[in-house]
Amino acid sequence: MIEIDDVSREFVKGERRVLALENIDLEVAEREFVAILGPSGCGKSTLLNMVAGFDRPTRGTVRVAGEEIITPSPSRAVVFQEPALFPWLSVMDNVVFGPKAQRQPAPDYRPRAAQIIEQVGLRGFEGSYPAELSGGMRQRVGIARVLIMQPRVLLMDEPFGSLDAQTRMLMQELLLEVWERHHQTVLFITHDIEEALLLSDRVCVMTARPGRIKKSIDVGITRPRAIEVTTSPEFNALRREVLALIREESEQAAREPVGV
Amino acid sequence: MNLRLPAPWFVVLPLLLLALWHFAVDLHWVAQGIIPSPEQVLRSWFTWIFGSSKAMLSPYSGTWLDNVTYSTRRVLQGFGLAALVAIPLGLMIGWSRLAARLIDPTVQLLRPVPITAWLPFAIAVFGIYDASALFLIGLGAFYPIVVNTTHGVRDTNLLLLRAARMLGAGMITILAKVVFPSALPSIFTGLRLGIGVAWTAVIVAEMIAVKSGLGYVLWDAYYVGRMDICVATMFSVGLLGFLSDRIIVWAGRLVLHWRTLEAHE
User: Fold this and answer.
1) N or C: which end of chain A has fewer CB within 10 A?
2) Quick check: B34 pLDDT over 50?
């Protein structure tokens, strides 16, 4: 579904050239949930931006469903870390922004909107404005407004990164539930090992700058999953394996000069 | 420092100034016959507003409302015209690099020319008619609106633009549904500055380029030595300017109600 083929991305800032990503090869199968795990600054968001169509690779190609990506599209919906809701629109109007922008007829999307709002637990808040919602509720809106587009690919850029631990757990459960229902292809960016293992079929661990994919680990835990699997021995073994990989990376990063 | 004073306190300073004015005239601290006393201004103002326009043949009896209407109409027309041109133009300059390169340098070059300097030009081209006044008012109000609109557009959060694009919005939808609402707070700032300039411009224009309105009365009263009417006119313009500013602020609050929610976060 997603084919990332030998992708490198270099940023030029005045005289300096920064290689953010180097020779990334990654394939995500249809309906697969893949987490990209890496330290901050490893270019994982850059990778997601290229799949989303916000950015283009310096070298290599990114394809989704066989087509090279040039521009953003609702078929590749993005959930950002900051929910990036339109503050002047109510919850309902935020959710139906996409269908409206695409001039879908209201009788088509209205019932779907009500259903999705119900699914993400926002019933009763349709008329509220983003400023009146908690961080977790805002992110629910961020998820609802992309689900209504029925995307084939869901791109999530540390969507729960700025939430408190309690809320994050609830949101992870919500995402598992939603995913069981729709089975989209998901590319999920995170720096949280537990989150990556809990949610995904496969975890790709990235190296520090320049970002490369260090190792891809299959998470064989049976679905449907609940938050309780994080306490199983199976889960702990996986966590230990990933932790070792990450530690190697951060130690190496600590030895290197900063900002190069 | 954010001590909230009870409402009546704001009248203390104006009352003090009024008293100072009264005694300055009463006790002859200022040259006699030049500066009228507040009481005299109030009496003349009253006659100007409520006096019969037929009984006396004075231009300063019962003609206040007419002149206020003339000036207000000019301000509204000029200001409306300015907003109608400046907001779309500001959206274009802020949004498109091409439009910015084509239009912005010209705007920035013309902007420092004071509207007062345009007066002879306006009269030469439009004559002693309303068109002259409208040109000056419109031009004066145009700059702050266009500059603030441009600024507001450029300040649009990149993440919101990305969100709109990935939700399938085209350029027109993005401009209308994301960029415009996001620039609205800035646009309202521009409108407030613009209406202020419009009142300045209307007085200047009426002093010279037309033969009616508060600016005309102000200059005419000065020529015939009616300083009391001059001062009453100043107060009238001040009140109208204040009122129109409040109306824009109120309209802004209504349109930008979502921002007051954010402020309470």
Assistant:
1) C
2) yes
